[in-house]
Amino acid sequence: MSEVARTLLAVLAESTCLVGMGNPWRNDDGVGAHVAERLAGHAGLPPQIQVINVEDVIESYAFDIANRQVKNVVLVDAAMSEGTPAGSIMFGKVDELEAVASDVSTHKLALRTVESVFRQSGKETYLLGIVSTDIDFGNEISPPVMAAAERIVDLVCSARSS
């Protein structure tokens, strides 16, 4: 098991709101929303995990998420990382990932704003980014990004509460 998977499972073992982000009409950018949709109706979703699909308007859901009785917020989003292969998965605290990569999320300004709201409500905020390459108009997620999304769905469903 990779270090990213072990770290993610440790976070998901605690009460967590998993937030799918992205525009489903911008190809790979819709991967976070796709993950949330897949998990929302999944019979194997662990009880400590709540799922919400915010698409590309996380600001509209910030206070709803902040008021939820969870310790962690995991934002699932398309990520951009120069030189990193499409379908690679990045995971870490939002502020730490931004220090490493200049343009990690395709929703950078919104992430900073909501991370501040979540921090003020006592929550740890993480970004689960899937490296994407095609965010042009369209509604098809590329094969390497879709494969990563399915790995994440399987991993989330395998999380056990602490």
CATH fold-level name: Rossmann fold
Number of domains: 1
Structural class: alpha/beta
Give the overall shape, derived from the CA principal axes.
globular
Order of secondary-structure elements: HEHEHEEHHEH
Would you identify the CATH architecture?
Answer: 3-Layer(aba) Sandwich
Proportion of beta-strand residues:
15-25%
Helices, by number, come to: 6
How far the N terminus sits from the C terminus, by CA atoms, comes to 19 Å
Classified in CATH, the superfamily is HybD-like
Oligomer: single chain
CATH class, please?
Alpha Beta
**Fraction of residues in helices?**
25-40%
Number of strands: 5
Radius of gyration: 14 Å
Major β-sheet strand ordering: 2-1-3-5-4
